[in-house]
Amino acid sequence: MIRTALRWRSAPRAHRLLVALALVVVLACALALGSTAATPATAPAATSATQPIDGCAVIDESGTYELTVNATTNATCLEITASDVHVEGNGHVIAGADLDASAAAGIAVTDAANVTVRNVTVTGWGAGENETVERAGIAVENVTDGTLESVHALENDVGLSLADSPGATLTDVAVRESAGWDVRLEASATAIDGLALENATVSLEAATLAVRSTPVPEPVPAGNAPVGFLDVDAPPAAVHAISLAYDPDAVSRPGDLAVVTAAASTAATDADTWVPNDAVAFAADTAASSVTTTVTGSATLGVVTSDPIPVDDCRDLDAPGVYELTEPIGGSETCLEITADDVTLDGAGYSVGGRERPGADQHGVRAVNVSNATVRDLLVGGWGVRDEGRLEQAAGVSFENVTGGVIEDVRAIQNEQGVSLVDSRSVVVREIDTADNFAGVALWHSSENTVTDVEATGNVDGVWLWRSERNAFGSVAISDAYYGVATVRSDGNRFVDTTVTDATHGHFLLSADANAVVNTTITDADRGVVFDGSSHNLLTESTVSGGETAVVLRAESNANAVTASVLADTLEGVVVRGGSNETAITGTAVDATTNTVAVADAVGTAMTDLEVGGETLSFDAENVSVASVPLESAPALTPESHAPVGAPLTVEATGAEPYLALTLTYANASLGDAVDAETLGLWRADDGAESWSRVADSSAEPANRTVSATLTEGGVVGVFGLETYPLEVSLVDARGEPVTNATTVTVADAETGGIRAIETATDASASFALQNGTYELLADAPGTDTASAAVTVDGDATAVTVELPALETDAD
Questions:
Q1: Which of 19, 84, 573, 702, CA to CA, is 20 to 30 A from 749?
Q2: How many angstroms separate the CA atoms of 83 and 90, rounded?
Q3: What is the pLDDT of residues 276-309, one digit of tens each?
Q4: Rounded to 5 degrees, what are φ and ψ at 698?
Q5: Buried b vs exposed e over 654-683: b needs ≥16 C-beta within 10 Å?
Q6: 278: helix, strand or coil
Q7: Distance (Å, whole) CA 94 – CA 197
Q8: From CA 11, how far away is CA 605, in angstroms rounded?
Q9: pTM of the model
Q10: How far apart are CA 10 and CA 8, in angstroms?
Q11: Residue partners of 483: CB distance under 8 A and separation at least 6
Q12: How far apart, in whole angstroms, are the C-alpha atoms of residue 610 and residue 583?
């Protein structure tokens, strides 16, 4: 007999119409096929082949058995007492009717091992009127390693009962409409996978435990909709991990799932006993459509999801919960105001429209003095006046003094501000599309917020910040604006992956310090990035192209840096003026039509490794502008016997006492083989002059490929070096035969005797590149006397043959 030690409560059966109809059909089929006797027959002796069972039976020998008919009986139908038994039910039904008092279960497995029952339905094993006996659809006792697979138990006292049966496995089992527990385990370590109950699908591992589906409690925990509920009965200290599956088609927002518990099943209908959602730990697996939580002892637990509250008109949202628009709404004053914590407004794609009303408090949606507010999937338009002369606190969506929350998937059109944060912190703004507002996204006195995935088109200001700090912006695309991004009196913000196209100012920083603009692309803005009274900011890994000026620093914008960027196709590259000191431009390519860099009324401007006109420049500058000059625009004459290296520059004074400490790095390709690197220097020609003069302190470092000089006046400057010409030396002996011994050839200046070059020849020839002049060649090889020859290089290639006489000896 199945045990009844664990408590259970009787409950009226909730007969669903479809289930009832199905049972009628099943039972009708069973009756048509015939009923078995109350006393089961003994199954045929097992052989290696599958043995058919054509009714109720006792299986007392090992083997494989196959149920071939439906069976209806008033006693236990299948009794299995042998080990190593496999029963295939073939989808047939074992039904109980007019049960005898001794009938314990539809299928009873006792005192055996390795028994499998699969693909069968047991139904009708319940107590009759005036009976106190408890029956089970399937009862397993004192069985090791039993398996129930694809078994359905319907309308039994207990669906499945296992006692003293370790190593059991329940797979793809469905239990419905049990009067007591759906599954009961006593000292039976069991793995349950995908147990389908009336209101829950459960997976767990346990030894002593009972579970049953419970009707959805009334009331459901506030603000939630039920997904699945379950009663658990276990020893007080027992801890079990239980997974409950949900139907993904019935849960549109898996992120809103939560687990709730009540201390005991008898309290499940008392709303005050529910543990709040955020106090129950659980793990959600959206891929598997399940949640897992831990239960200690006995409890009722459920999976719930937010239950949207329908909204069909303007109103206050003054209680926690999820609200959902059911139709477009609007008005002339603030339409939806969130005044409670933990509110989610789902626009469901509908619009909240405004009508202009001067002087009115106008917001499509406003959250005020709350935390954890969410607004999503909404269209807002017509809130405030889009006037290029004003920017007031009217907005499509506004968070004011909000801590934590999300504004996402919002489209804002023709508002004073599309999305606005005021005195708010830790808010995420993402997936925003703004068009034709005064400001697309605006932050006022708001810090540590995140703004990502924004598209702003045709707004006066794409993004606006006022006294807002440490905010993070990413993937913001702005077009057709006066200010792409305006950062005003706002410090420590970071902008990454921003694009601005067709704006008067790409990114304008006014009295804003310690901001970082990273990987930003600005195209066709009159002024790309403007630092106005702003210090310690960084522009890096960015591109500014088109327009008038790429970067402007003015009004005492100090210690700003531009690094690893490209400034191209603008009239001016970098303009530093108005007391903007200690500017550092590093590793940046500048291609500007007029001025590459212009510095006026500023000190400490340092340019390092600027790529300008194909050359690399480094310089410190005060009150000068520097621009690349094409070779064809340079003075026609060059210093005598000199050749240019790279393109020249134009240096102009922009104020008193101009100063330029310039280092130019040349490429070996620019030098070629026709210029002596040791003679390189910086030369200057006055504007319009046809002659050059070497800058007094000009010096070259061939090892570093650099030329340096200090300029204190303007003009055209360029790097020149003395030209060299090839000298080919052939070495022969007295017979005119090539000298192949190692020969040292020395070239010395004929006037000074200074050695200009030395080469060791092994193939009877030596090559030199020499400036114009007269030289003495000395050739010395083993076994020969030293030979000498005079040669003059005069603007062309020269060849000379040196004869090495045989060494004179005493015998001679």
A1: 702
A2: 21
A3: 555 577 787 878 888 888 888 888 887 877 668 8
A4: -65, 140
A5: beeebbbbbbbbbeeebbeeebbbebbbbb
A6: helix
A7: 19
A8: 86
A9: 0.66
A10: 7
A11: 460, 461, 462, 464, 503, 504, 505, 508
A12: 14
